[in-house]
Amino acid sequence: VGDNSGSNEEAEKEKSFNEQKISHLQMELNQTTSSLESLKEKHKQLRKQFKGEKERGEEVKRGVNAKMEMELRKLKDELRAEKEERMEMERRWRECAETLERKQLEDEEQYSQLA
Fold first, then answer.
1. pLDDT above 70 covers what percent of the chain?
2. For the segment 59-100, what is each residue's pLDDT rounded down to a tens digit?
3. This model's pTM is above 0.70
4. CA 9, CA 103: separation in Å to the nearest integer?
């Protein structure tokens, strides 16, 4: 009977040790599950944040593109206006040159008639 009680005592110790080990493993599992849930939530928030930043980036990009297009149109308009102004000045210059040439011919005719 004494031999049997030692064996029971050993079994009780092993049972207690295993219960403690199971309790410890369950605690670790709970912590790991909690950490995993926390990481999942963080991941979800980061994806949401990234999506928001990506959308803001697209908005900024569209805004910059619109501003650049507006500047380009403005420059094209200025260039067109300068080109028209230059053409008008060239036309006036030709008119002046033609008028001057005509006057010189008239003056030469009058001079030759006087001579």
1. 97
2. 999 999 999 999 999 999 999 999 999 999 999 999 999 999
3. no
4. 137
pLDDT band at residue 3 under the 50/70/90 scheme = low
**And the tokens for 45?**
């928030």
**Euclidean distance between CA atoms 32 and 104, whole angstroms:** 104
Q: What is the pLDDT of residue 2?
A: 52
Separation between Cα atoms, residue 99 and residue 15, nearest integer Å:
123
**Residue positions counted in the chain:** 115
Is 14 in a helix, a strand, or coil?
helix
The Cα 64–Cα 70 span in angstroms is: 10
Cα–Cα distance measured from residue 18 to residue 9, given in angstroms and rounded to the nearest whole number: 14
Q: How far is CA 19 from CA 5, 26, 32, in A?
A: 20, 10, 20
**Encoded tokens for 46:** 């980061």
Q: Which of 74, 26, 104 is nearest to 82 (CA)?
A: 74
